[in-house]
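During the second year of the project, the team shifted from modelling isolated chains to modelling whole assemblies. The rationale, set out in the original proposal, was that interfaces cannot be judged from single-chain predictions alone. As a representative example for this report, we include one of the complexes processed in the last quarter. Its constituent sequences, exactly as entered into the pipeline, are reproduced here:
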Amino acid sequence: MAYGLPRGGERIVVTRRGDGVSGRELVLPGAAGWPGVVPPGSGVFRDEFDAPLGGSWVRNVESGAVVDANTSHPSHLYVRTPKSGTAQLSLVYRPIPAYPFTFETWVTDATTRCGTGGNMEAGIGVMEAAPGKVQALFHRDNGSSDMNWGIQSWTTPTTFGSNGTQLASSTGFGCRAPYGMRLVATSTSSLAWYVSTDGLGWLLVASGVNPGFTIGNVGFVVYGGAQNTYTHEVIYDYARIS
Amino acid sequence: MGLLLPQRSAREGQRDIVLPGLRALPDVPRNGPWDKEFAQHSNVPPGYILQGAPTVLDCNKTVPGCLYLKHGNGNVRYMVMWPSPPAPFTVIGKISMWDVDPSGSNASQQPGLTISTAATDTTNQRSIGVWAIGDGTANSRPQIHGTSIAQNAPQSVHPPFWLKLVVNSNTSVDGYISWGGRLWIFVGNINPGFTVGSFGVSGVVTGSSPASNAAAWEYLRVTTP
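Output from the structure prediction step:
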């Protein structure tokens, strides 16, 4: 669901999800801007997380992590990393469609924080067919005094590789939930990563990015920062692949 | 927030239109017996005790749907409190808007969710809160004040955000902050050192000009076991 009030004054029809009613429309004036509104038309794949996590999703998560949909938090995918002290990405992913494709999500809330001695990170990413290598766009602790947006590559889910483009919080986007993330994949060697704080305007983090491996999967990536003190919780409102 | 929808469904004629996830929206009022839903009031909800003197205090006026408090330069503290249930209880407050100017020398502005002694106690203004402060730098930080202060690292703090105090007992209170009202970031635990008797909101302005503190609270919600 949307996190805030609509910004425009136009009238649009809000798609009714799972209401079982046909031929009727619920019109909320100005709701066009809601990032949570399901767009018209059918995409290649869409999961609004209004039901338990479907079988098309693969979980490759840290031991002790919690992953569910429409359970811990209604209408959301929920990921919680444990206080394990383990440096491991938790991945929830599915095979990619044909190129080009767009993958978009909305992070409704997260406990990502800085100054913990670790680096909590939440985002979306692409992976090899059997991860394997991972490249992700993260909302992350920048290791000093605030959060930023950044691209990272991992050689395996437990082995950090390198940092890519990093946008400081001074970019002007407040670095905190809620926010949207979008991947536009033109080919396996050309990715564009975006972030948004309102679902309307999208800030390009980097384009023409070559992850350096053949992409097999796309999905969600959460890193607990190898924390012994805090869990890291993230809720995603939807996955839309079009 | 001005949009009030039922928790589960919007009735259209004789049919229900179900909006999945709507039930879990943190803004949906629950109308608990201790709750203060400021959109439902034309004045500050009755029974409050004002300590200190904000230059502006109104409800559903300056900021529609919100309790609004403001003070300009100075070194002041003010609180708007209501009687609370006895511990244990949890109180959540949402700040929808603020205007804090920490640019003055040593300026610090702290709108906070607060508990204190009995609301009628106007002499003891001991209180604790989860503060989001401007400290004269580019960053704010969540803090919880008791006889000591626990705080998180500086971080971009801007509305809307939620604050939560979990009053486990009269000697143990946990403070949290949330960006979305669903997941909570732990700030710290303190011993208030008094018998908790009230809850509300407060503001602190310190430092030289320019300094100001204005905050709009959308609601306060109290849950008991």
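Chain A has no helices and 17 strands. Chain A touches chain B at residues 1, 3-5, 14, 16-21, 24, 26, 48, 50, 70, 73-76, 108-111, 113-116, 145-147, 169-170, 174-178, 230, 233-235, 237 (CB under 8 Å).
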